[in-house]
From TrEMBL:
One GO BP: methylation
The entry's keywords: Methyltransferase, Transferase
Highest taxon of the lineage: Eukaryota
Name of the featured protein: S-adenosyl-L-methionine-dependent methyltransferase
Lineage, top ranks: Eukaryota, Viridiplantae, Streptophyta, Embryophyta, Tracheophyta
Keyword NADP in annotation: no
Gene Ontology MF annotations: methyltransferase activity
One matching Pfam family: LCM
Length: 316
């Protein structure tokens, strides 16, 4: 993977250590036009729309058109954008893991608010999909998606969790997420402002995900620039930075090169792949027990100890 410096459209994420407030505008339309969250989400949605209508689409998003202010297909670039390559990789890995892992019924998506995965992916029956994303963007898209007939697959349920909340963990649990059951997490598009805000995300996933759960997605490369500086173009430096960052939160991570993903594509699609990626694809396995697992075992250990004390007292 060739990593270059450049402008990447990712923006602040409200977490425990960062706070971003949008001043009220005169109208919702004006607010959207001036909202960097919304504009970045629109840009990504436009890429999915273009790829869906290419002669040999790598992915098809049947609902994305209703989210765009203009659906013109004129002057479309036929090159396969790295974002679409990453999207395909994440889509496939989510479904493959869901189908091959017993008891895996929880999916947590960390997105920009215009992500259509809850509707367009064929989730297994009884899947719970939790979408953590900016509330204003999500609310604006929800009605459009419903009007377009978008529905989550039969037997599944979808829950929205506002990324603006300072208590994402408790909100997730209140909506039915359980840290004692398997889950898979995907990060693509959720706004982050700096490395600290992404560390908050890693902390949240580490607290809630069971041991052995997967966390995958794509990171803006500028997050690495903050630590590796002029070595951002050095693949080995990026890998070491990624290893150290994820391991500090209990994850064993692997960086996925765009070329590696492209090799698994159909020949016609592979020819359209851009040689430059401005994000870092990753897949990580959680090596720690979740907070819920630890609490369950503490309770059980305490119960065993108390039973042992009672038996000892009866013998006396």
């Amino acid at each position: 993977m060739e990593v270059l410096r450049g402008r990447v459209h990712f923006f602040p994420f409200l977490t425990h250590s960062t706070y971003f407030s949008i001043r009220a505008r005169a109208s919702f339309k004006v607010q959207q036009e001036n909202d960097p969250f919304f504009q970045a989400a629109i840009e990504r949605a436009s890429l999915r729309f273009r790829e869906s209508h290419s002669p040999d689409p790598l992915l098809i998003d049947p609902y994305v058109g209703c989210l765009l202010p203009c659906n013109s297909l004129e002057d479309m670039d036929q090159e396969l954008h790295p974002y679409c390559l990453a999207t395909k990789f994440i889509d496939d890995k989510l479904l493959e893991t869901m189908q091959s892992t017993d008891g895996l019924k929880q999916v947590v998506l960390l997105t920009d608010g215009l992500d259509t995965r809850p509707y367009r992916l064929n989730w297994p029956t009884s899947t719970l999909v939790f979408d953590i994303c900016p509330d204003k963007v999500f609310r604006g898209a929800l009605q459009k998606l419903q009007d377009a007939g978008a529905k989550i697959p039969r037997g599944c349920m979808s829950f929205h969790v506002p990324s603006e909340s300072f208590d994402v963990e408790n909100i997730l649990c209140s909506k039915g997420f359980s840290g004692t059951r398997p889950s898979i997490w995907a990060f693509q598009g959720l706004p982050v402002v700096n490395l600290e805000s992404f560390k908050d995300i890693l902390s949240t996933v580490s607290n809630l995900a069971m041991k052995g759960c997967l966390f995958l997605g794509e990171l803006p490369v500028w997050l690495a620039e903050m630590d590796v500086g002029d070595h951002v173009g050095d693949l080995s430096a990026i890998k070491k930075w990624l290893d150290d960052l994820f391991m500090s939160y209990g994850f064993r991570v692997k960086m996925i090169e765009y070329g590696e993903v492209a090799q698994n594509l159909r020949q016609d699609s592979a020819k359209r792949v851009s040689e430059v990626g401005t994000s870092i694809l990753f897949i990580a396995e959680h090596l720690r027990f979740s907070d819920d697992q630890m609490e369950t075992w503490r309770t059980e250990f305490q119960r065993i100890e108390e039973e042992g004390d009672e038996e000892g007292f009866e013998e006396l």
